[in-house]
Write a structure and sequence with these properties.
Keywords: ATP-binding, Kinase, Membrane, Nucleotide-binding, Phosphoprotein, Transferase, Transmembrane, Transmembrane helix, Two-component regulatory system. 49% of the residues lie in helices and 15% in strands. The strands form 6 sheets. The chain has a 5-stranded parallel beta sheet with strand order 2-5-6-1-7, sandwiched between helices. Strands 10-9-8-11-12 form a 5-stranded parallel beta sheet, sandwiched between helices. Helix 12 packs across helix 14, helix 19 runs antiparallel to helix 20 and helix 23 crosses helix 24.
Amino acid sequence: MRGRLRVYLGAAPGVGKTYAMLGEGRRGLERGRDVVVGFVETHGRPRTATLLEGMEIIPRRILVHRGATFTELDVDALIERAPKVALIDELAHTNVPGSKNAKRWQDIDEILDAGINVISTVNIQHLESVNDVVEQITGIPQRETVPDEVVRRATQIELVDMSPEALRRRMAHGNVYAPEKVDAALSNYFRVGNLTALRELALLWVAGKVDDQLDRYRTDHGIAGTWEARERVVVALTGGPEGETLVRRAVRIAARTKGADVLAVHVTSADGLAGGDPANLARQRNLVESMGGSYHQVVGNDIPQALLDFARGVNATQLVLGASRRGRFAQVLSRGVGVETTARSGTIDVHLVTHEEAKQGRKRPKRSGAALNKKRRLSGWAVAVAGMPLLTVALLPFRDVISLPSEILLFLCLVVGVALIGGMWPAMVAAVGGSLLLNWFFTPPVHTWTIADPENFLALVVFVLVAAAVSTIVDLAARRTREAARARADAEALSTLAGHVLRGEAALPSLLGRLRETFGLDSVTLLERLAEPTPDDQAEPRAWRIIATSGAKPCTEPAMADTDVQINDRLVLAARGRLLDASDRRVLEAFAAEAAVALRQERLQREAEQAKPLAEADKMRTALLAAVSHDLRTPLAAAKAAVESLRSHDVIWTPEDRDELLATADESLDRLDRLVENLLDMSRLQAGVLGLSLQPVALEEVIPRAIDDLGPMRDRIEGNVPFALPEIQADPALLERVLVNLMANAVRYSPPGHDVLINGSRHDDEVEIRVVDRGPGIPPEDYERVFLPFQRLGDRDNGTGVGLGLALSRGLTEAMGGTLEPEETPGGGLTMTVRMPIS
C-alpha cells in the first residue's frame, strides 16, 4: 500500500516548518512509532538541532560534483530501512547531478511507493503556480519549484503561519540567519510588504486545498445541501442580451466578500427549448473570464433542476438569474425558470435581476412542432378528451346552418391542434372520436350510426385519413426536432471542450473536470494499463495506473465505473456517478478520443524537451569540429612558421627579426590558449558542469583586474564605477572573464579616438555593469544572433576568432544568476549591460 504524505507549508523561510516537522516526529517516537530522519537541514539553528538529538538519522549519500563534495538523501538506504515514518526536509530541493532523481519530490514519491509515510516541508514561493507572482512581489526568482499537484496529493497539508512582525523579530534575534546576513535580509526579501503578500498567497492556496477536501467529504458522505464555508456566486446565462448585465451584477455581489468566486453556467437543454445566441454566449464568456470568473456548460432537460444541481455541486451560496423575458400570458400558463428555481432553491439565495429585456417575450424561431416531453403529451391528451365534446356542444345549435363539410373541417382543425401539442397518439384518438361524434350528431340520419349519403361516408373516411396523416407527420417532425436539439447540445458540449484545449487549458485533470461538470458525474478518471491485457484485469487495481482524475473517489480499475470507454488497448476512460444513456455515451467516446490525443501530445512534448539538449549537444560537437578544423589551424600555422624560421640555419636573423618572430609565435600561442579555454568553457556550459564559486564580490576589485588583463587595449578603456555600490553575488574569476570579453569586443569595433566606457549603477536588487562603445552597432533584430556560438555577425573576418566571446559571456553570466543584454548606445554604438543580483 502506498504511503501517506504530510506537508508543512510556510509563507517564507524561518516560520518554523522544520521545527514543526521535527516536533511531530518526536511526538510519534513518544507514541512508539518507528520514525527516522531521512534528511533535515538545520541551517545552523540551535533549537532545530536540539530536536534532532536522540533521533535515528539515515546517513546521507555523498556526491562529488565540479570538484566539490555534497550530501543528498539516500533513497535506497531509507527504503531498505523501511521505517513507518520518514522526515524529509525541503520538498522542492533540486538534487546534485548524479543523484538518483533530479528533484527531491521525486525521491519522496519513490519512498511513498515503497509504503513509507513521509512528512516534508515546503515554502509557498516554491510552488510552480505562484512562482511568477512571488518573483513580481519580491523581485527575486525562485529557481527551485515543485508542481502544485505533488503537494495537492498530500493526505494532509498544515500551514505554519507567523505574522510578518513576529518573523522579522525572529530574524533580528538571529534565530533564522547568521548575524552578518540579518540586515541585508530584513531590507530586501523580508520586508513587511513582501511577507504580508506571501502570507496571503499561502492562506489562499491552502484555502483552495481545503475546498477540494470539503468537496470530497461532501461527495463521500452524500451531502447535497449547501455549506456556506465560502461565498460562491453562480450566474445563469441563457445567451440572451441580458447576460452581460447579470455577469456584472454577480461580480458586484461577489466583490462584497473577500475571496468569493463567480461561476457562469449555461444549460443546454436536450429538448431544444433553451437555446441561446452563440455570439452572445461567446461575448458573455469572455466577459466573465476577464473579470476573474469561470464559465461552465451543462446538459439538462429540467433547466431549474440542472441549475440547482450545478450550484449545489460547486457548493454555491448565491444564484443570480435574469427576470423572465416571457410575456404575461406565458407566465400565467407556466411559472417560469426564475420562479421555479426560487421555489426549489432551499438554502441557496436566489437573486432575480431585472433588465431591459424583461417581459419583452422570447425572440426565438417559430417551431412547427413540439418536443414529445411528458408535459406536452399530457396536454395533448387533455385537449383531445375535452376538446372534442366541447366543440360538439358548440356546433349543435348551428347544425342546420353549417354544412357537414364545414363541420368536418372544424373537427380537422382541432385534430391538427392536438397533433401539434401532443403528437400522434392523442391526435389519432381525437380523429377516431371526432369521426364518431360527426357521425352521431351531424351526419344524416342523426343519432344513428348509419350514413344515408355515400358522399358523407367518403368525407368521414377522408377526415380520418387526413387526421392520421397529419398526426404522423407532426409526430415525426417533433421527434426530428428533439434529435436535432440533442445533437446540438452534444455539439455545444464538444465545442466547449475543444475550445478548452485551444485556449491552452489542455491539462488532463482540468479537461476531465469540464467533462464531469457537463454530465453531472461524481468522478472521471483516465486509466492506463500497466501490462499486457488479461481476461480478468478489469477488476484488478494493480493492473492499472491513474493518469489523471477529477472528482472524488476515482476509479482504480474499469470495473468500478458506471460507464467506461475503451480508448485503445492501454487507455480507458472511467466515469462514476450515473449510467449515461446512448447519446451521452457517444459524446463521452468522442471526448475520450480527444483526451487520448491530449495525453499523447503531453508525452510527445516531454520527449521533445528531453531530446532538445541532445540536439544542442550534437550541434555544439559539430561546431567544435568545424572550429578545430579551421580556426585552430591559423594560430598553429603562424606559431609553427615562426619557430621553424628561428630554427633555420640558412638565414641569419637580426635581433629585431628574431624578436618579431618570437612575438608572432607568442601572440599566436596566446590566441590559441584563449581559443582552447573558450572552447572548453563553452563545452562545460553546454554539459552543465562548469565549476562555480559564488561569493560576495566588490566591483571596485574586479573591474581594475579585468582592465589590466586587456594588455595594450587597456589604454582605450575609461572606467566610471562608484565605490558606494553594494557587493554582488558572483564568481570573481568568471565575472572577470565576462568583462574582459565584453571590453575586448567593444575595443575591437570602436573607431580610433573613441574610448570604451565601463560604468556601474544600482537598480532595485541588482547592480548593472555597462560596457559602452561608439562603433557601428548592430540592428535590433540581430541582438540575439550575436550570442549564438560560432557566430560572427556578417562572417567578414575569419581572423577575429570563432565567435565564442559573446556566447560564452552570456552563458557565464546566466550561470552566475545574472543576465546579459545588448542595447543601442545613444548617438550610435552598442552597450552591453550585465545585471547581477546584490549579495
